[in-house]
Amino acid sequence: MKNIQNLVVFSLLLFLVTACNDDFLEKLPQDSLAETNTFSTNNSIQAYAWQFYEMFEAHNELTTIAGDQRPGRGFGLDREADADLIQINTDGNGREYIWGRVTLSGSSEDWNEPYRQIRAANLLLKNVPDSDLDEIDKDHWLSVGLFFKAFNYFNLLKTYGAVPWLEELITDQSEELYAPRTPREEVAANILRDLLWAEAHIKDNVGLEKREIDKSVVNALISQFGLFEGTWRKYHNLGDPTTYLQASVAASEKLMAEFPQLHPKFDELHNSESLNGVRGIILYKEYNLEENWSNMSTTFRASNSTWDITRKGVDKFLTKDGLCVTNPNTPEYQSDRDMFAEFRNRDNRLLYMTPAPYFVTRLTNTTWASTGNPADEEYFSVYESLSGFPHKSLPDLNWFGNVVSRVPNFNQNSVAGFNRTFSGYRVWRHYNELNTGQSSRDIADAPIFRMGEVLVNHAEATFELGQFNQSVADATINKLRVRGEVAPMNVGSIDASFDPTRDVSVDPVLWEIRRERAIELMAEGFRREDLRRWKKMHYASEVKLGRWITAASQDNKVPIQNGASAGYVQTVPGTPPAFPDYYYLFPLPTDQLVINRQLEQNEGWPKN
Q: What 3-state class would DSSP assign to 266?
């Protein structure tokens, strides 16, 4: 199977061949000859289908296609800042979503773009049956169309809940344009129906690389969608979670059989020049200097890096004995009052997520020397063994190779104007030294679906079905812990006292499953949607804190909770209000309410 390496080339080819622009999808249905040509061969349909891949969230991208900004948003880090484990520091007054200040938008690409893609998918679904392809090829392309239709409806469902379902291609005269919202249960059932059909009829292993859409990718989406909808239905009291949870489990089990091994280097999943052949990668997008690059790593190696992990996020990471830092029985956790001790004996994934502390003497912009105190470089050798150039190493460097003489490099008291932190725990997940010296021309490939997510999906879904046990833990969570050098989960040892800070409304074992999910997927855009489906957005209404410091150590420039002389950094003053229930669904854009008077705004939101 081909990966997505030629996405830009194929997409541009499609637009050039059809002499199209943004009006292409509007004009094509009126031209039967254009339709016949577009859907006549496998190659022409493949070229048409490349447009759908642009909806995948990959790496931050500066390039455009046909004048449109591409949708890469850094694995949803802004979205994660709407939850509890990540903060973005450009919002000095707090995130609007958390602080209850969301306003209605006149128009939204969260609505418009999925429906554009759905219309394009319906166009494919309308024309493929009439092509001269054999039945196997027809079924394959119908499956691709159904996959992307389901993918886009899933995005709409997550955002708005009930939305109009368009079963077939419509025109600007179709009555369906002015239809009311389709009930959520029907939209969800249609998504699952289409994905199951696609899984049964799509070709497998379409080529040699990972990958275009094939059976594995469809199963990955079923795994994700089934867990989301099943838990949403359970915790929002909508009924019938089992159908979706069972679908998630079944799809995950197929993938676990197909991908029995994981790539041993966690950091390389996001910071490798090539993901071709990497174990556990189900679908990825290729970046290179010739035709398609991103600004992902540059973003985290420059002055515009403003994402931090919160105190709560750092505390999620276990000690190597498999205990949480709040468990009084762990001898391995030392203290968060000593910035070096805090990182000792911890899950290695913490070291990949945020840089460990150090001090060096900066000689020139790009050279440095030791301070003479070996303790200041405690983690240098650790990174050499865990990651190393061109992935992660110390000292911290910007995209040009300029040295940061200390970590943490607090924005309010910085030693360098780049690679700064506000909370004390800068997001480092996507930092690599590939292509050093060229700003915004980054070439690390981006995973789109990977087995790390599938395994935590499976662990959670089986628990919700009452099927989670030690065997499942060994097949899922404990496989992930190997990469962090963390002791395996012993299900029988987890009781109410395992984590004294646990939300008491959550079963202790489920709490630890959710912890593992938070660790494995941190900074990949999942956390806000997880809190929403669990109906736990009140976690995000807690004060976001950072590293423990003394004010004097930062020249009294870094804000500390309650203005204390020593304590946890707090960059956003005050406490967010209680999270309102109606915020769990976002408001429909008001232009759609004007166009279609049968649409009703989500409950609680103003109508205009």
A: helix
